[in-house]
Every structure is written in structure tokens, then in C-alpha cells.
Amino acid sequence: MNYIGTRGFHNHRTFAGALLDGLAPDGGLYVPQSWPSLDAAELATAAKGDYGVLTEKLLTLFGVDVLGAEAVKAAAAKTKAAFLRNGETPLTQVEDNLWILELWHGPTLAFKDMAMQMIAPLTDAALSQRGEKLTLVTATSGDTGAAAVRAFAGSAHVRLVVFHPLGRVSPVQRLQMTTVEADNVLNIGVEGDFDDCQRFVKQLLGEASLKETGLISSVNSINWGRLLGQVPYYLAAAAASGADHPEFVVPTGNFGDAFAGWAGRKIGANVGHLHAAVNSNDALSQAINTGRYVRHQATPTASVSMDVQAPSNFERLVFEASGREGAATKALFDTFAADGDVTLSADMQSALKAEVSASTVSEETTKKTIKHAYDAWGQVICPHTAVAVAAALERKSGKPIIALSTAHAAKFPEFVTEALGFAPEVPEAIQVLYGRKETITPIKNDYAAALAAVKGFVG
């Protein structure tokens, strides 16, 4: 299994190369050179079995075994530990043909743990093979950074730099990043929004002066390895539901989680239609539904991890919808980067709609859905989950639907309390954060300041 870039890079990377590069040399994102496939019956059998074995099977299918069987086994074990609830797939049926899949049973109580717990041992294995060290830079709207810090803190091979928008992540998300004491971690708060942080990461990955200090990559979902860790739970959830090709409704900001589901469907798994549910930061929804892809300043919402107006993984979907035309994909995203405004061709818009659908959920509807979930089903859900559930309820028509629940409600206590009239129960993993010393480096919304901070950290 080799990997190519979405903007025309065809010199092929193994999984290890794609993992450590982050971005492809053409400035695009890595995708498989060709999509593997397995017999549907074989995939169905694997999906019904042990989650760790399923994960090993999928990792091997995508060429992760280039790092060795032991690395695959270790990564699968980490992913399994972050996923199950009482040893089972955490799927709860709340109505006829409607399920909620809880993806927040890992160490930071968010779905990012599955992929991050997996990518950490794989990265260590790849670096050990090469005898090198790596600087990882990542942007976060809350959960990615917390999961990355927890996964990579103390690594002998990795230096981790996390950018987050100051004042635009929940207090719990911030504490999960800034209270971990590790010499190999630098937390940077940017006076801007998530898209500014993500822009800095992409610029840093191409920074020649940083490359002179050693390898540099990212653990955002621009990194194929990060995204790959999210594929297994689509298969496991579909199997646990007993439904035939259930639709998945995914609350999304950067579109990585939704694209992981698309990948599961692409390889022949029992994964049905994919629907992206977004908050008022709806550039993705507008692009799919109107053909206009426009970058606006992100608006703060209760579902803070979805406050994204330039979702990176949209590029992977465009590449696939274009018939894997690297030149066309490059032209579109070069224009978007320069102008912040692209009109998709009618053919492109039609091709995108054939792959996914999307809708926008308001703050008012998000709050009402949190209350509905508790009153109707006894479920206390976070704002991100509420966005997905609201969209799922709107789409119900007798077909099976699985809505993804991406974080524990206690990570967003103020909004949930407003919706319910009482505070969500706080797990011990959150309680122990309060009162701990925080370490954070604030910077202006300026690339030069970001570069200086990273250079000062890596030496």
C-alpha cells in the first residue's frame, strides 16, 4: 500500500512516510494510491468480532504493517482501550432506527482519543526504525490538542507543539492541554480562531528553516494516520446495530471524522450514507448545498470543536469527487487559499452530493436537542452530539441512523446546564484538573510570532 497527494504528488510514500510527513510534498493531503477492498462478508465478520482484531485487520489493509506486526498490535490495543464501554461497542438505541454511538470513553473523554492513542505508538515505531526525532505541530479547537498532549507527553522521540485559539475552547478542554507537565510539550494560545491556528500549522510544515532542525509533521486530521484510527468504529457500530447499511450522522468541523466513515464505505464495509452536521460555521454545508465555498471568520458556538470555516479534509473529498484529478484539486484550493471564495462547477457539486450530504444546526436547536435527549431518552449529551442528533431527527424517515456522540457532556458544563437546568455529572478525570498549574504561551495572531515560539522550543 502506497500513498499519493491530492494535488498531484505521485512518487508514492509508504504508510510510514505519509505518517511522518503529515502533508504531501505537493502541499496537499495524502490518500491511498488506490483504495483497498475486502469481501463484504469478511468485513462483516470482522466487524462483529473483537475490536482490537478488527483494528489490526484494517491497519494492515492500509499498509501500516510496514512498521512491523508488533507496532500494529500495540496501536490496535491502544485504540481498543479508548473505545469500548464495559467491554462492548458503546452504541445505545434511543428510538426505532436511531442509535447514539458514544466515542468518548478514552482518557480525555473525546472521540479524538481513539486515533491519537493509535498514532502515538505508530509514530514512535516509525521514528525508531529511522533513528530520528520528530517535531509535531497541531492546531486544535479543543479536543485534538488535549488528546495529543495525553498521547505524546513524555515521548522520547517526539516534541509536540499545540496551537489553540485563546478563549475559544472550553475551560475543561484548556485544562486538559495545559496542566500536563511534560518537557516535550509546548502549548501556544493564539489571539485568533481555529482557522488561524490551522493556517499556522500548514505554514510551519513547509518552513525550510524548521526542516533544518529535523523532521516536522502534524497530528491534525490532515495526517492520514490520524484519520485512519477512526475507520474501525464505523464498522463496529454498524455491526452492533444489526442494521443494513445504516446512515451515519457526523458532527463535524474539519471533516476528518466524516471522511473516515467515507473510507469505511469505500472499502466495502456495511456503512451507508454519510451526513455531515455542522453548526453556524457552515462553509462545508454551504459548499455542498449551494456550490459556494466561502471562508468567513469563525463564529464562537457552544460546539466549539466544530468552529471551523476551512475544513482541511474537504480537500480529500473534492479529490475523490473530481475523479482523483490532482491538478483540478490544486487549482480549487489554491484559489480558495488566495481569495477565500470558490464557486464549484455543477459537475463537482453533483459529485460531492453523491458522496455526502450536509446540514446546518442553529444554537437554539442545539440547546433544545440537549433537553429533548434528556426528557425523551434520559441521555445527557454534549453540544456537538446535539448537533448530530438534531440533524438525525430531522432526517428520520424509517431508515436506520447512527448519530455520533463525540465528547462527554461535562466538558461543556455551562451550555448543558443552561439547556437542562442542572449540571452534568463530572467524571473524576475532569475533577482532578482543577487547581493544577497551567503552562501556556500566548502569542498574537501572527505567523512570525508562531514561528519564533516553535523555533525557541525546538532549538
Automatic annotation (TrEMBL):
GO molecular function: pyridoxal phosphate binding; threonine synthase activity
Location of the Tryptophan synthase beta chain-like PALP domain: 86-321
Pfam families: PALP, THR4_C, Thr_synth_N
InterPro entries: Ser/Thr_deHydtase_PyrdxlP-BS (IPR000634), Thr_synth_N (IPR029144), Thr_synth_N_sf (IPR037158), Thr_synthase-like (IPR004450), Threonine_Synthase (IPR051166), TrpB-like_PALP (IPR001926), TrpB-like_PALP_sf (IPR036052)
Family annotation (SUPFAM superfamilies): Tryptophan synthase beta subunit-like PLP-dependent enzymes
N6-(pyridoxal phosphate)lysine found at: K112
Top EC category: lyase
PROSITE patterns to which the protein is assigned, alphabetical: DEHYDRATASE_SER_THR (PS00165)
Pathway: Amino-acid biosynthesis; L-threonine biosynthesis; L-threonine from L-aspartate: step 5/5
Keyword Lyase: yes
Threonine synthase N-terminal domain residues: 2-74
EC number of this enzyme: 4.2.3.1
Keywords: Amino-acid biosynthesis, Lyase, Pyridoxal phosphate, Threonine biosynthesis
Source taxon at top rank: Bacteria
Cofactor: pyridoxal 5'-phosphate
An example Gene Ontology biological process: threonine biosynthetic process
Catalysed reaction, written as an equation: O-phospho-L-homoserine + H2O = L-threonine + phosphate
Family membership noted in the UniProt record: Belongs to the threonine synthase family.
Protein name stated in the entry: Threonine synthase
Biological source species: Asticcacaulis endophyticus
